[in-house]
Amino acid sequence: LESVVIKCKAALAWEPGKPLAIEDVEVDPPKVHEVRIKIVATGVCHTDWEYLYGQGMKVRPFPLVLGHEAAGVVESVGPEVTKFSPGDKVIPLFLPQCGECERCLSPKTNHCRKNWANMQVGVLADGTSRISCKGQQVYQFLGISSFCQYTVVPDTSLAKIRCDAPLDKVCLLGCGVSTGYGAAVNTGKVKKQSSCAVFGLGAVGLAAVMGCQVAGAKRIIGVDINPDKFEKAAVFGATECVNPKDHKKPIQEVLAEMTDGGVDYALECVGDPAIMTAAFESTKDAWGSCVIAGWTETGMMNVVVEKILMGRTLSGTYFGGWKSVEDVPKLVDDYMNKKLKLDEFITHNLPLDQINVAFGLLKSGNR
To answer: What is the pTM of this model?
Structure first.
């Protein structure tokens, strides 16, 4: 079957700081080891917003199509693709898993680097993207570009999932929920009967709260400056919530008082270096553990050396420590088997042409 160029709609970022424009684009057929997908649902992640409007990201080329948290259906496959067929339900992955490199063969990490350098700057293996608009190449954010009705990704950056999974829910496993949940259960290795603090109660933070609850933590303290989020945090397992604005003392001192010297585990889910420091300092000396899940590419974190010398641990997590290709289908199974919440994360369902409204909701915190 001869693969053809597909004409469809995309939300295009022509330049930094400007709202997205709904444009007619052309999506080329998949090349060797590539798969073309019809995107059915996409989440809007803070990293997409930050790249367009914020300061915390490295420069990547424009114009580009954002979006990296999605689910869809395989439309066609390129040469040498063996693991996917048209009609398969799939989740595209900004973190690949080739299954062959030193990192994929190690249980210590999920950081596969297949096509990594190219995908970070918005192109696929051959150095070009598959999306164009008005005769101009359009870059694919993190090699994905899910704010487009169709996209093309490498076959090592795609998870095949069960055919009965609702794509408008499991799309959240493409980034935020997997990252926060894994930060607690994989990277943090939260233990039963422990005390935890989760900083930031957006999707990543709520997923971290859920991970702490699944791990059997006895105290899970949500921390956010927006008290409207506290009710939702309780649904996911927070035992109490604290608003730093309600206290004159730094939040790490407030938490230390609440927990007789600090929490066992702190999870930072904001991406703000000052909050990372506060999270680290809110843990108990001797064995406190802080996991950074919030994303920034340019920030510097301040660590008082004595606080780490006394026995605290500081670690980062990327995509929650999950081996993407093999673990995302298992997370889908957990959701289908009611072991994992997803529906509760969803506040709004909007069509593609309302993407700027979605960005506004994201930024206002009404999400």
So the answer is: 0.96
